[in-house]
Amino acid sequence: MKFGIATVSISGNLEEKIEAIAKAGFDGIEIFEQDFIADTRSPREVGQRIRDAGLDLMLFQPFRDFEGLPGDLRRKAFDRAERKFDLMQDLGCGLVLVCSSVHPDALGGIDRAADDFAELGERAAKRGLRVGYEALAWGRHVDDHRDAWEVVRRADHPSVGLILDSFHTLGRGIDPDTIRRIPGDRIFFVQLADAPRITMDLLYWSRHFRNMPGEGDLDVTAFMRAVMATGYTGSASLEIFNDQFRGGPARQIASAGKRALVNLMDDVRRAEPDLVTDLPDLPPPSAPTAVEFVEFATRGDEADALARLLRSMGFHHAGKHKSKDLSLWCQGDVRVLLNSDPQGHADTSYVARGTNICDLGLRVPSAEDAVTRALALGSERFQQPRSPEQLDIPAIRGLGGSILHFVDDPLATVWNVEFDPAGEPGEGAGLTRIDHVAQTMRYDEMLSWSLFYTTLFGVKKEPMIDVIDPDGLVRSQALTSTHDGFRITLNGAETHRTLAGGFLADSFGASVQHVAFETDNIFDSAERLHAMGFDPLPIPDNYYADLSARFDLAPDRLQAMKSASILYDANGSAEFLQLYSRPFATGIFFEIVERRGGYDGFGATNAPFRIAALKRLARPKGMPRA
Ligand code: MG
Ligand code: MG
What we know:
The mean pLDDT is about 95. The protein contains 21 helices and 25 strands. It is about 35% helix and about 25% strand. Bound molecules: magnesium ion (MG) (2 copies). One magnesium ion (MG) binds near residues 438 and 516.
């Protein structure tokens, strides 16, 4: 199956779009007429450029308001079509999309429309062109693929076929299984888009909120299963109108699109194996069971300060890498690496961003399966030279310049194989494991990030939450693996004035802003932290006054929270307690959480107070980093 994407789906001028689409590995392109008109090159030059980039020119679109017009308007519609046929021939594109008419004078009538298409098909055939008819969800008389199919069926012309668009079918709530009744050879083209479920005007929803299959709430898999069941052998192409994508980085969005298509067809095959025959086998998404390690790139005074902070949180220096300037800090099942090596990825990352989390390691059932799937979805393998004693731990480039490593049981020997014990004993503070990692990105990149994780891993998306920052809004999307072994929160910043946006600006796009450790008893941990000299993020008294009004908390418990700067949330009988470190480096911080009674959130109601507290401690704007 060939994969395509409409030029309207990504940002930039036509040339930038062609480059990004070719780079992402698509087979072809749908040319959106406006993108062509805005270009200065002739149709022949544009067509040649697209072919030179290794892309098929799959579809020219859209041709609007064609069918069902009376008298003179009908004649003009055919004249317009002839002009577009001229253009298509110059471009070297054989198929045009005609979307159902919204013209106020269109008369309706299935047979009238069918007659128009029979004639259009005749004219197209003379030039070796084909015509595809698509039902717009807001078409004046035809707004349902079943009616569009009836028009095509009655037009009964080999050059006239149906174009299906998942948004128009699913957005109107039409059962996609009705597609299974249509002969596959009469479907000329298939366009795919997902969308979040929002109640709003269909046209507005379609023009601004479409997203990649898997990024929204529509059952695009059911749609595509039905398409494949017809025997359809044509292309699958993305047609995404989305404001975030229009402002986002073209290459990243195009790569996300390719990833979405591969993942979609993999889903179709998992549901109905006989329907997909030409997709290379790929392992199923793996469910990470834990964050195996987080690795900081750091140097000098910043490295010393970070080591002191870790020690004050109960970590002990457990190991020294045999060949690199890399130290291992442990507590419970938490591993933090401090990398000060003057070469390799950590060095590059430090030079670009200062102290930051440059690598994440995830514990997965099979590292080989995880990396194989990642590569099939378009991720780039990451490798750097290693010495003989180093294990070959598979890794890929994640988003935001970070590296993601996959560690399975056999590879977990790395801590003994590659590290010499440092021998420092540790009392600990009762921290048991990494509860979650919080990554920050620009809002317009957020969907690509969540797609990265949902296609690679067995994780589910929690509902998106708005977090109020004193200086703007941050959207927060949590992803959790099926058995809670892995939680990640994605925070999309729309302005640099928010804490998340400021972090992105100051760190030149580092991604991990905080790491949360779990404890079984936060009060006990807080006491031990205090004894070790840990200085928590101070929380104002007003917060605790409000807490006592909102929750039925025993006075001594409330007092214990207040004196340890512990924040609280509850959901029924499930409780969440959290405390934070002060920010360091470009604004990274640690969190300590205790979950009671199956609390599965992240304390979102506390986020505005935590953000305000962190901002009070941030260096004044414009001041250089210490
Ligand atoms: Mg469409
Ligand atoms: Mg958190």
